[in-house]
Amino acid sequence: MSLRTRVLLVFLLIGLTIVSGAVLTARVQRVHLVNQIDDRISKLADAPKFIEKRALANRIDKPAGAGLSDTYLGYIDTKGGSLQTLSTPDDDPEFMPDIRSLTPDQPPATVRTLAGKASPARATLVSLGSGAMGVVAISLEAADRATSQLRTTLAFVVLGILLALALLAWWILRLGIRPMRELTTAATEVARGHSPDMSSVNEPTREASELKAAVNNLISTAKSNEARMRQFVQDASHELRTPLTTLRGYASHASGDPQNTAVVADALTRIGEESMRMSRLVDDLLTLARSDERDQLLTAEVDMTAVVTDVAADLRVVQPDRELLVSATESVMVAADRALITQAVLALASNALRHTPTGATVTMTVATSTDEARVSVHDNGPGIDPEDQPHLFDRFYRGASTRPGTGLGLAIFASIIERHSGTYGVESSPGAGSTFWFSVPRRRETD
């Protein structure tokens, strides 16, 4: 069942409840008024001597007395003669009830009238001591009039409430649910790979506006991801096409003159180099793909100072002629995946060694604050052009075409730091060297 249908059913039930309540109120009020009339009739019926005195006094031409201005009193003698009127209502002197259906000494019942302008009435037969019968009746005109006025008032009130409910339902459906349905349709189109036009979607409420903003963000993210995926596939294809073309060229060159050992040896050497380049590229792509999968980190307590010191020791073995310094005075504990965070530090240090002259000094520093641990790698090399700096962490970005590497090392580094909820950046200027850094949340002693 749709939300629209549920809202309509709720308002329909509310409307039926209100109408039923109004009908029940009018019915209860009428019963109450009739019971009041019956109580007055019963009080007179419990005083038969009063009716006898009125019959003996024959005071039909005299005022009815206090409390009897709307009451009919009648008398039937012992001989079973016709009904003799003793008193009538002041405003209906011709009033006479039809008592043929009444049984003596029974509770008041509703009867018609034989004369007068009021009909019906409540009446009862009273057995008098002399064997005669008395009649007590009160018109229901006042009760009917009061009930009719109450029904009219309730009808206007209920009509007003129903109109307000109808307006509220319209407001909810048109200004609340309709935009949600339009946005849901738009989100479905996004899931199908389309880019719907969101400008026509009405947003009269804050919730609809927030949902529209979220859907717009979803569309933008989908477009951005699609563009990044296309660019990634394009870049990967380009990077793989170059070594493959080279491999085919050297293989063809070697097969063209198989007797020339020098040519064959050179071709095999070139083929081996290009194969190693392809292997590194594929390994980097696999590492980046696994990083994008966002698998659960094997988080543990890691000493960043120890990690930086170990990475520096490994690189000194690889490049013993390079000056690689470590600046760290104390242990700095963080909650991290040791293998991944080591890979991130190694990526920064290797990047500095790869892109600076052999005489440049590389300094690795570990610093700490209350909430974060910061690792920076500084070199006093030639620096980086300002136009290249915003793209250094993009995939396959290598700035000048002559720069070595696959262009994935810093992208892998950035992905690792993002998985650790950290931040990263670069500070560089031409001729003044470069500083690459990252910060990750620190593991407190109370953790």
Structural features, described:
The longest helix has 51 residues, at 141-191. This protein has helices at 3-45, 48-57, 141-191, 206-256, 261-292, 304-318, 338-354, 409-419; strands at residues 71-76, 84-87, 96-97, 109-111, 113-115, 121-127, 133-139, 299-303, 324-327, 333-337, 362-368, 372-379, 423-428, 434-441. β6 (121-127) and β7 form a beta hairpin. It contains 8 helices and 14 strands. α1 (3-45) packs antiparallel against α3, α5 (261-292) runs parallel beside α8 (409-419) and α7 runs antiparallel to α8 (409-419). It is rod-shaped. Strands 2-1-7-6-4 form a 5-stranded antiparallel sheet. By secondary structure, it is of the alpha+beta class. The chain has 4 domains: 1-46 and 141-204; 57-139, no CATH class; 206-292, Orthogonal Bundle (Helix Hairpins), CATH 1.10.287; 299-441, 2-Layer Sandwich (Heat Shock Protein 90).
Instruction: Sum up the overall morphology in one term.
Output: rod-shaped
Count of DSSP E strands? 14
Q: Could you name the CATH class of the largest domain?
A: Alpha Beta
- CATH architectural category of the largest domain: 2-Layer Sandwich
How far apart the termini lie comes to: 49 Å
CATH-defined fold name of the largest domain:
Heat Shock Protein 90
Report the structural category: alpha+beta
Characterize the largest beta sheet: strand count, sense, and whether it forms a barrel.
5 strands, antiparallel
Physical arrangement of strands within the biggest beta sheet: 2-1-7-6-4
Order of helices and strands: HHEEEEEEEHHHEHEEHEEHEE
Helix content: 40-55%
